[in-house]
Design brief:
The complex is a heterodimer.
Chain A: E1 8-11, E2 15-16, E3 21-28, E4 50-57, E5 60-67, E6 76-82, E7 87-95, E8 100-109
Parallel strand pairs in A: 2-8
Antiparallel strand pairs in A: 1-3, 3-6, 4-5, 4-7, 7-8
Chain B: H1 5-18, H2 32-40, E1 46-47, E2 50-54, E3 57-58, E4 64-70, E5 77-83, E6 91-97, E7 101-110, E8 116-124, E9 129-138, H3 144-147
Parallel strand pairs in B: 1-9, 3-9
Antiparallel strand pairs in B: 2-4, 4-7, 5-6, 5-8, 8-9
Classes of the chains: A mainly beta, B alpha+beta.
Chain lengths: ~110, ~150
């Protein structure tokens, strides 16, 4: 569905103690079409997956992932970041078609 | 994209007819050793260091929760590679942890074409490789292959 902005769900704690490990959860609506399925006319659906996901925290990388076709539709990921300073988490999903879906989430570090 | 059950079944049948290599139990898993050589060269992983949490059984393979963790600081881990040798494309994911990672732990959901042994390999900064594997049974029966890739 070109042009459509997928729904993105992100969970980041609103506040955290400095130095604490905070759990980050991110989910994006995406079919992760693996390029192996056929439509009713026997034509192959072209591959269209999110092949890379990156989360940064005030510009520094938390996690950088390469995803293959084995990642489920509506890909979900959770991981842990160190609460360093108040600021924001930046999330980026890289689609096969060249689109980059972006979202940010703020955090207040006490 | 909207797929109703009818479209899905017809499409699945087309998939089964068009790609016999993907159907039936005859298709062998990709050899893990060969996959590892392609990714890591001649280094061989030893069991340990990395932990994998994966249910031993799943009703279908469309979204199987999996958690990977390594008892090392993120700075000590170069990457984690996740392999599903029973899938058409066995390399499922690769994770690298940056300076803001609190620990080496990641959870996600993966698609599995059928019952198989899933393997994860952690590469540490010193070049050593560590692996963990777990068997999983996909119980969706004859439709398991056709369902692979559906939403």
């Amino acid at each position: 569905m070109p042009g459509e902005t997928p729904k993105i769900l992100i969970r980041v704690p609103a506040t955290a103690q400095r130095g604490a490990a905070v759990e980050i959860k991110a989910l994006i609506n995406h079919p992760m079409e693996n390029g192996l399925r056929y439509d009713l006319d026997g034509k192959l659906f072209p591959r269209k997956i999110i092949h890379r996901f990156v989360c940064k925290y005030n510009g520094e990388t938390v996690i950088d992932c390469d995803w293959g076709t084995a990642i489920s539709a509506n890909p979900y990921i959770s991981f842990f970041a160190i609460a360093a300073d108040s600021g924001s988490f930046e999330f980026e999903w890289f689609d096969d078609d060249g689109t980059v879906y972006r979202q940010t989430a703020p955090i207040l570090v006490a | 994209m909207k797929i109703d059950r009818r479209d899905f079944l017809v499409g699945s049948a087309a998939l089964a007819a068009a790609s016999p290599a993907l159907t039936g139990a005859a298709r062998a898993d990709a050899p893990v050793g060969q996959l590892l050589t392609e990714i890591f060269g001649n280094r061989k992983p030893k069991p340990g260091v990395i932990q994998m949490k994966l249910s031993p059984i799943a009703e279908n393979g469309l979204a199987v929760p999996i958690t990977l963790s390594v008892d090392e600081t993120p700075a000590n881990v170069t990457r984690i590679v996740l392999l599903a040798p029973g899938n058409p494309f066995p390399k499922a994911a690769e994770y690298r942890f940056g300076p803001r990672a609190a620990k080496v732990e990641v959870a996600t959901r993966i698609r599995l074409a059928r019952s198989q042994e899933v393997t994860a390999v952690a590469e540490l900064r010193d070049g050593s490789l560590w692996s963990a594997s777990a068997d999983i049974t996909i119980t969706s029966g004859a439709c398991a292959e056709a369902e692979y890739g559906a939403r």
